[in-house]
Automatic annotation (TrEMBL):
Region feature Disordered, mapped onto this chain: 24-84
Protein name: Outer membrane protein assembly factor BamC
InterPro entries (UniProt xref): BamC_C, NlpB/DapX
Gene3D superfamilies: Outer membrane protein assembly factor BamC (3.30.310.170)
Length: 381
């Protein structure tokens, strides 16, 4: 990528930002490299969304014949019960929102709200924060953004202002990109909301600095917490209260000195099943394993490596060094089975056991098992 901003520029901008504000939620000004789709006007909390009528709506792609179109339009009269939903529909002010923490993992516990109610609010939240929502799987409660740049890390100097004025602000860029995976878990009290961060860093590949490539960088739990705080504000929590939650939320006492340890072909986690299930789900997100389905009653996550990681070895993807799928034989039809099952079982009131198998439940090669469990152990410590 050709850019004016250098590593020195990024370092100086971070210093300026650190001196100008101590509020982690105020240092976020993201912009995606892709154009965001246009969305309808969003209604602030505690206000009523206007009724949307279809009187002048153009026919969609669903009606393939005149009779089908006429049936879908009915008699042409607006019916309040069939009004089209407004993109980014919001909830009334939510009172029962708290931030929880376990080690370096944080999440929101939203009381009396279902994942279905929170889904459109989450989508609008990320779009309004400068991200493009890349994938949506509401049936399993998983959403993922595209890569975006934090423009707040750029220096707000006269040169940049001049470039912005003449429409060339985009030539200023940082060598960092971030994306987030959002996961919703339904609970007996409401819904738990998880944000997991993934980052990339651009480096020069030669002394002439003519070529660059992207390398993965560590996850940033503090950045996850800052966005969780912003989402608390979106749900109606006062800004000062959300800021305090980000800064002062305390971790519960650990159930043992060692949170996770390898034991042969399994990983022993020092948590009850409920807590282990929660922490393992977030750890899977962080290491680049996409949850395609889950069955909590059986303690099973069905996962596969993120497609971009599995296919982009040249771009330095996280899983490029663990590309076991390159040695796997195709199944019938020429498809390589890259899916895994992550099974969590309670061992006692204070311990759980994690095992990884292939998509059919068969054991994996020892080297593959140890490497995958090692990555998860690092996240669960």
């Amino acid at each position: 990528m050709k850019r004016i901003a250098s590593l020195t520029l990024l370092a100086s901008s971070v210093l300026v930002a650190a001196c100008s504000s101590t509020d982690p939620m105020s240092k976020l000004d993201y912009k995606s490299d892709r154009a965001a789709p246009k969305s309808s006007l969003e209604v602030p909390p505690d206000l009523t969304a206007p009724q949307v009528q279809n009187r002048y709506a153009t026919p969609g792609s669903g009606a393939a014949s005149l009779s089908a179109y006429q049936q879908s339009q009915g008699d042409g009269k607006a019916k309040p019960s069939q009004a089209a939903p407004v993109d980014g529909a919001v909830l009334a002010k939510v009172q029962d929102v708290r931030m929880a923490r376990d080690g370096n993992q944080r999440w929101l516990a939203v009381g009396k709200q279902s994942p279905q109610e929170l889904w459109p609010v989450l989508k609008a939240f990320w779009q309004d924060n400068g991200f493009v929502v890349k994938t949506e799987e509401p049936e399993i409660g998983v959403m993922e953004t595209d890569w975006a740049e934090n423009r707040a890390k750029l220096p707000n100097d006269g040169v940049r202002k001049l470039m912005e004025t003449v429409g060339l602000g985009a030539v200023y860029s940082t060598p960092e990109r971030d994306k987030f995976r959002i996961r919703l878990e339904k609970t007996t009290e409401g819904t738990e909301v998880y944000f997991s961060h993934r980052g990339m860093y651009e480096i020069y590949t030669n002394e002439a600095r003519s070529d660059t490539k992207w390398q993965p960088r560590p996850t940033d739990p503090e950045l996850e917490a800052a966005f969780l705080g912003r989402f608390m504000v979106r749900l109606g929590i006062q800004n000062e209260k959300a800021k305090q939650a980000v800064e002062t939320v305390t971790a519960p006492a650990a159930s043992g000195d060692v949170r996770a340890k390898l034991d042969g072909n399994k990983l022993v986690v020092g948590d009850s099943f409920d807590r282990a299930w929660r922490r393992i789900g977030l750890a899977l997100d962080r290491v680049g394993l996409v949850v395609s389905d889950r069955d909590r009653s059986q303690g099973t996550y069905f996962v596969h490596p993120a497609q971009s990681e599995a296919e982009a070895k040249a771009e330095g993807g996280f899983w490029s060094s663990l590309a076991f799928w390159k040695d796997k034989k195709p199944q019938a039809g020429g498809k390589v089975d890259n899916d895994y099952r992550v099974v969590v079982k309670p061992a006692s009131d204070t311990q759980s056991v994690l095992m990884i198998t292939d998509s059919r439940g068969a054991a994996l090669p020892d080297a593959e098992t140890r490497t995958l469990l090692g990555k998860l152990r690092n996240e669960l410590q």
